[in-house]
Amino acid sequence: MIAQRALKTLEFDKVREQVAKYATCSLGQEGLEKLAPATTLEEVQSLLEEMDEGLSILRIKGSVPMGGIFDIRPHARRAQIGGILSPKELMEISSTIRASRIFREFIEVIEADNEIEIPLFIAKKEELPILTGLQHEINSCIDDNAKVMDSASQALRGIRTQLRTQEGRVRDRLASLTRGSAAAKMLSDSIITLRNDRFVIPVKAEYRSHYGGVIHDQSASGQTLYIEPDAVVQANNEIQNLKVKEKAEIDRILLELSSKVQEVAHSLFVLVQILAAIDVVLAKAKYGQANKCTMPIMNDRGYMKLTKARHPLLDAETAVANDIEFGDDITTIVVTGPNTGGKTVSLKTIGLCTLMAQAGLPIPALDGSELSVFTQLFADIGDEQSIEQSLSTFSSHMVNIVEILKQFDDRSLVLFDELGAGTDPQEGAALAISILDEVHGRGARVMATTHYPELKAYGYNRPGVINASMEFNVDTLSPTYRLLIGVPGRSNAFEISKRLGLPEHIIEASKAFTGTETHEVESMIASLETSRLEAEKDAEETARLLEEANELRADLDAQMAEYEAKKETLENKAKEKARKIVEEAKREAEEVIDELHKMQHRANKAVKEHEIIDARKRLEGAAPAQENRILKKQRQQNARAKQLRVGDEVKVLSYGQRGTLIDRDKTGDWVVQIGILKMKLPEDDLQYIKPEKTKDTVSVSTVRNRSQAVKLELDLRGERYEDAMHRTEKYLDDALLSNYHQVSIIHGKGTGALREGIQQLLKRHPRVKGYHFGSASEGGYGVTIVEFK
């Protein structure tokens, strides 16, 4: 078991508090308050697998039904010793049983769908006792407001029926006393109220003898007396007798239900225990989901590799993430450098991530991070000065370190912060080296921080030890909080002083007081740091380019393979599609030509201009995509043609009609007269026509008869959103051309997205007067009725 001192030092209790916020009931919160790290690999892996199953469920289902759970253990204990439970306690027992049933059914649905593998949750579901019978018996007697219902027994129903009848009679009798002019004079207010659980009326003190009866209360001023008149004393007595009978019957019902709870009390304890454990697991998963945490890989050989790990108690958006790896060839990390830049935070990050993983919590690091299970974790961090024991900071640290040296072994993780601090620098450095030698030599995993320069060479002299430091930006005079593995810390005092304006001759003089060896070490560290930064930059760029190249190659290989596999199929599909397009175009063209022939035969009747335009539009729409490209090219050529002027005759390319230019607006569009219609069109849709010599012509009117009449309703159910919107726009145009005043658009209810999109389209349409949902017989919210201007 991990020592409580280490949990307190690393602030594991604050992590537990954060996780507890995601619990849905007091049972889960209680379980998380007692959460402690496990110390065996099998137990830790089981805890993490449970949590990972919870994450999978949340990812697929979004949430898990865990509402209505109460701590019913005290109720079950009272029932075990023969106590009578209150309606509220029985209601809480029923609610908790119901919650377990809903959870069981929820897991059974996931199991049946076979979407995800959740064997541990299924096992917990199987362990849940089935107490549906008790739930139904309680629900038949107690309602959701913890009241005993009339239906609890025939006797109770009869008593309450009599009680309500008797109370009605008393109220009626008292009401008769409060009416009339005499009552208005003698009563303070014409109301009926209760005092001492008996019906009374408020009588002015001077008229007390008029009503007689029993005085139960008086107002603060003494001017009003609450009197139970003689006329209702006997009736009130009968009400009290009925209430006594009611209470006796209720007590009998509660005793009967409590005895049934007593019979299954043990099962209720098991039920609560399992629900509490499930809530704890789901709270861990919700915490991980909310804080972008991942499940680490666990081992028991002391190896740790954290990728972009951050301190779990710091803001996830601003905390600096670090990569930390040691445990195989390297078992000790010594972080050197000045007391700035987050050395302590790095220590706590490693310690907290280890504790969280061993407690079955996800850790704030990238996926693929790996941690080891330790039987003991020791941390000597922070100011341990003890006023009560009259110990200095150094002495207090030494007391803690002595205890650590007595207890640790090769399955321990030991964290030292500012090892040897608080005493003479030379003696402190010597002690730090000796302590590190002892802990490292006995096989423990160690991470220590120190500001002693003597320890900068520690990692170079001993196998299995590596130096590290916290990066410091001399340009901005601020730490970056990045942990640099393999680079010892160096003093930045000279650089900082120089940037802050200290004269150069003072800095040079101070350098003279430092030894040659110190200069060489600092120069070596600076060179290492520069080389590391360049190597990191090159490595990142190389990795990025390699990843892009691999992705590109894989993508090209996949595309080539897919092309080769589907080449013949695609060609056949393309030919078939082209054949269908041509056949459809031919069919549409034949229909339009047939209509035009019919119009010719009825030439003596007036032809509406819009019918000609509609026929032309259908012919144009029947053309395959190639023809549309020709029309586009024609427009591009037209854009370079003669400059158009008012009065010119033009051809409207999109409709194939001739027209005359009437006016030009500020946007550059032209107003064109086409027969009796005026239309606003862009210039690239117009082609100049040279005026022809006037000839005597005979006007021929043609009439187009639509082969298919426009329906009064448009059914969009089952359509994709984009297709439905396109069909709606076209249908509105057709309905307007058919001079309809009102149409119906059937979009169904569904999610409401299609209905919302259609109504937004109607709101913007210039010819729509208004719209509303259909009546119940017309389809209700599944139909929108459109009225045109």
Overview of the molecule:
A hairpin with a 5-residue loop joins strand 16 and strand 17. The chain has 24 helices and 23 strands. Helix 2 packs antiparallel against helix 3 and helix 20 crosses helix 21. The longest helix is centred in the C-terminal third of the chain and has 86 residues. The two termini are 81 Å apart. It is an alpha/beta fold. Helix content is 51%, strand content 15%. Among the domains are: 155 residues, MutS, DNA mismatch repair protein, Chain A, domain 3 (Orthogonal Bundle), CATH 1.10.1420.10; 108 residues, MutS, DNA mismatch repair protein, Chain A, domain 3, CATH 1.10.1420; 205 residues, 3-Layer(aba) Sandwich (Rossmann fold); 76 residues, Ribosomal Protein S8, Chain: A, domain 1. It is flat. Strands 10-11-12-8-13-14 form a six-stranded mixed beta sheet, sandwiched between helices. A five-stranded antiparallel beta sheet has the order 18-17-16-15-19.
CATH architecture of the domain at 297-501: 3-Layer(aba) Sandwich
Helix share of residues? 40-55%
What is the residue-mean pLDDT, rounded to a whole number? 82
Residue fraction in strands: 15-25%
In the CATH hierarchy, what is the class of the domain at 297-501? Answer: Alpha Beta
Strand tally: 23
Reported by name, the CATH topology of the domain at 297-501 is: Rossmann fold
> What's the N-to-C terminus distance?
81 Å
Task: Tell me the Rg in angstroms.
Answer: 44 Å
Widest β-sheet, arrangement of strands: 10-11-12-8-13-14
